[in-house]
Amino acid sequence: MASSPFLHPVRAIHPVHAAVLGGVLPLFLGTLLADYAYWSSHEIQWSNFAAWLLIGAMVMTTLALLCGVVGLARHRHGLAYVVVLAVTWVLGFFNSLHHARDAWAVMPAGLVMSLVGTLLALVATWIGLSTLRAGGVR
C-alpha cells in the first residue's frame, strides 16, 4: 500500500496577510515598551510614543482581521485565529481610548492593557503564522 504524506492540502495564509500580521506584534510590543519607559521615567513623551505606536498597531490589526475574516470565509483559517485577533482589536481599541486621556491618568491601567494586548498579539501571530511550513510538513 502506498503511503501519501498529505492527508489534506496545506492552506497557508496569503503573503500580504502574513506581512500585515507580522507588523501587529512589533507595534504592540513597542507600545508596551514605551508604556514601561513612561512608567519608570515619568517623561510624558513616552506616553505620546505609546499612543502613536498603538494607533499603528490598531491599523495593522484591523487589516489582519479583515484578511482573517476573508480567509475564514474561504476556509483558510480557523475560527480561533479570528476570535483571538478580534479580542486583540477590541482590547487595543479600549487601550487607545485610555491612552487618549491625560498622560498622568494613563498609568497603571495603560501598562496592563498594553501587556495583555501584546500577549494576545503574540498568540494571534503564533496561530496565524503556524500554517507556514516548509514543504507542507505538518
From TrEMBL:
<dbReference type="InterPro" id="IPR019251">
    <property type="entry name" value="DUF2231_TM"/>
</dbReference>
<feature type="transmembrane region" description="Helical">
    <location>
        <begin position="103"/>
        <end position="129"/>
    </location>
</feature>
<keyword id="KW-0472">Membrane</keyword>
<feature type="transmembrane region" description="Helical">
    <location>
        <begin position="79"/>
        <end position="97"/>
    </location>
</feature>
<feature type="transmembrane region" description="Helical">
    <location>
        <begin position="12"/>
        <end position="29"/>
    </location>
</feature>
<keyword id="KW-1133">Transmembrane helix</keyword>
<dbReference type="InterPro" id="IPR016923">
    <property type="entry name" value="UCP029509"/>
</dbReference>
<feature type="domain" description="DUF2231">
    <location>
        <begin position="14"/>
        <end position="130"/>
    </location>
</feature>
<keyword id="KW-0812">Transmembrane</keyword>
<protein>
    <recommendedName>
        <fullName>DUF2231 domain-containing protein</fullName>
    </recommendedName>
</protein>
<feature type="transmembrane region" description="Helical">
    <location>
        <begin position="49"/>
        <end position="72"/>
    </location>
</feature>
<dbReference type="Pfam" id="PF09990">
    <property type="entry name" value="DUF2231"/>
</dbReference>
